[in-house]
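Lab notes, practical 5.
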Amino acid sequence: MSPVQTGAPHAEEAPSPTRSLKWRAIAAPVLRNKSALVAVAILAVFVFLAIFSTLIVGDDPKAKVGPVFAPPNKEWPLGTDGGGANMLDLLIAGARISLLIGFCAGAISALIGGTIGILSGFFGGRTDTALMRLTDYFLVIPDVPLIIVIAALFGRSTWNIIVIIGIIYWTFTARLIRAQTKSVRERVYVQRARALGARNSRLILRHVLPQVTPLLIANTVLLIAYAIFVETFISFLGLGDPTAISWGRLIQNAFTDDAIINEAWWAVIPPGVCVMLVVLACTIIGQTMEDALNPRLRTGHLSVRRFRVLRPSERPTMQPQPPQSQPQPQQPS
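Output from the prediction step:
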């Protein structure tokens, strides 16, 4: 059903919560979950290292400080890489690029997917059909060949990688926000504001967007984890920025320098552990928020985290029902 756009003033305001209530609704699921709190602490440590990496490491983390593939010791806690650089400095410097790509690409995907999802769900009709067909086309496009082609045409800079990841992985966000927008569009206060003459732009900005923003933020955290993983994958294939230091680039350099043959595990495992910790932390935070904010998971009891096998002592026992006495037929007097 397409909303009617008129220019009458004085439309009824939606019962939108205050900013403090909105952020409390977003943060409450994380604060109540112990694993989510641990994930927040892990992510905060990496964000701190990424922000202050230039102060901690210095100007040139790739400078040679020792022999090639030196094992971990007191001077170099994580050893050196194939160029004699300190692996700990490289990991701290790589956090800046990996998290930059993850956060920026996740924000671009959320912006594109959220915009398409809101427009598609709010207007419906031909707009919905056209935008969903566009989403289907992006769903079936193979991402790896497209990344290779775009990197070959436009170069392998960091910002090109951010844009590539951002414009490919927005489809799930669009479908999720579209479903939520369709639900919000039919609520009573939106219908009343529309009947009183509120414009479409006002309905979207004042009534629809505040209701879908928490779910969009939860999905953006999941997109950050996926973007970091994709950046690692792209850099490992040799399609990343050759001038930037990232965790994927460190893994690719380790394989190029034959770290496995030289049994230099410290050149391969630490970058992989960093990627695993950040992706796992973002996934736990995003899923915790989505379980609480996604109405389809909440009302349908479809949260994966809530499924568990009951112990034998927790399983309900069937109590035998006493037989019901049949009423005796009355004898005629």
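Observations recorded by the TA: The chain has one domain: 19-301. Residues 87-123 form the longest helix (37 residues).
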